[in-house]
Amino acid sequence: MNGKKKQQFTQDTVVNIVFHIIAILMILMVIYPLWFVIIASFSNPADVASGKVWLWPKTLDVRGYQKLFEQKQIWKSYLNTIIYTVVGTAIALFVNITAGYAMSRKDLPGRKWINVFYVIPMFVSGGLIPTYLVVKQFGLLDNFLVMVLPFAVSTYNIIVARTFFQSSLPESLWEAAQIDGCSTIRYFVQFAVPLSKAVIAVVGLWTAVGLWNSWFNALIYLQSENLIPLQLLLRRILIANESLLGAATGTMAQELRQLSDMMKYGSIVISTLPIMMLYPFLQKYFNQGVMIGAVKG
Length: 297
Hints:
Layout: H1 2-41, H2 45-49, H3 63-69, H4 74-104, H5 111-123, H6 128-137, H7 155-168, H8 171-179, H9 184-192, H10 197-213, H11 216-221, H12 230-247, H13 250-289
């Protein structure tokens, strides 16, 4: 009997070691490209092109960051992006979480038709031109609100929130609150929201990432230079560099190519590092939220 237990223990140990090795390799496959972009942004482009940069910069070179931060508008665009992300995420959370809770209530009048009303836009889009005309009619062109208000509603996020409320909040809690004279709004604010940190973190993170990376809406609806976000400004800088590179020849072309590569790596770090730093603070709730809708034992 002891021999069988020892053999079983040995097999379990081998399996655990194999799984740990596989997990470490998968983590490295995800982390290393991010790390490479960071060290490449501080490295000489010639070293990167020749394959000399692996784990750390061989020759420290910060010209890419210097050229990026020489752009006077970059700090204003950075501030714009932060404001768009914070305000837009707050509005989206208020709209989508409240809508998801309302749709989770079985006593909601017309609940079936409201669900259909929300699902249709997931499959049928109004198109760019009709959307542009609607935004124009509401006077939102070249307006701060155009980046945070018209596109705040997300059917997918509403469905996620609805699923969470249906599966995680017991009906007995609502019945007990009713007995104590609790209204629907008070129940939502004092009970549903505090118990919904996981779905709020998930929807908030998804929304924040989308707003932080958004540049197309700014390209279409904004004209004022004081309102453009960071992503659109970085896009303009990189396109301008490519245009200069196409007109250059010889040694100048090579130098511009190296500078352009450094600015590309630098722009990736500048534009992604803040939102990546947000994830560790939401990791606990995010891990809970990704299991929304899973089968529970």
